[in-house]
Amino acid sequence: MIVKELKDMKVRFLVMFFLLLGTFVLLVVMKDYTPALTEMLKNVPEGFLEKFGVTEDFIKKLSEWNFYIITQWYGKNLGQFVPILAIIIAFPIFAREIENETIELLLVRMSREKLFNVKFFAPLVFTFAALAVLALVPIPVSWFIGERLDTGLVFKYFLVEMITTYLWFSVTVFFSVISSDQVKPLIASIALLAGTTVLGGFVKTLSTLNTYSYVLKGDVTLWPSLIYTLTGVVFTYLSWRSFKTRDF
Questions:
Q1: Residue range 172-215, pLDDT digits in tens
Q2: What is the pTM of this model?
Q3: Helices (H), 91-182
Q4: Which of 10, 91, 208, 231 could pair with 186 in a Cys bridge, judged by C-beta atoms 3.0 to 4.6 Å apart?
Q5: CA 30, CA 27: separation in Å to the nearest integer?
Q6: Residue 42 burial class via C-beta count within 10 angstroms: exposed 0-12, middle 13-18, buried 19 and up
Q7: Rg of the chain over CA atoms, in angstroms?
């Protein structure tokens, strides 16, 4: 059953993994062009880039390896894709079996509890493994090219990325369990991510809803980490209760 689950997620998993790995390689290659970027940006009207937080000091710091990788890999490229990675892996896990009416056949061969555990945790473990490779790959690369990288900050980012992945994986699996086709859990998860990001970004009292402000900063602060982890646990439980009681 685990082998079947891994075969089902193989295409999504490999596409996302190598897409993100390729993004990191491209980012490393582009590092050598940051001095040229500095020269090009001198032609931009004064004050324009400051509106977006891109100051002259920020551009100069991009030539430093540690600052460049932390801000451009963890604070932008990888961080932005963490919730999307979790959603893309999770959305068809149960919905595909329900839509194709193969869930009844699977339930003949094993108990609901075992089936739920395999289908929930096997993709989650492999998503964590892929994230570990993507989040930690700058460390050996830094050693290889002889550059300094703040490994303590890297592991902080890795931790918040794991928590964010678990949160959105659990939310999406819940939508996958209660849906009868594969499109609805994908749309519902993306809509919820967009809605919570906008609400948290514009309403200060709801700022905790914005998981991007959490994952892009890499701050392992207590309450957001606890709230996101517990929310993931709640959605995992709701997924199990829905799967256990649903009439297939």
A1: 999 999 998 999 999 999 999 999 999 998 988 888 899 999 99
A2: 0.90
A3: 95-99, 103-109, 112-136, 138-145, 151-178
A4: 91
A5: 5
A6: exposed
A7: 20
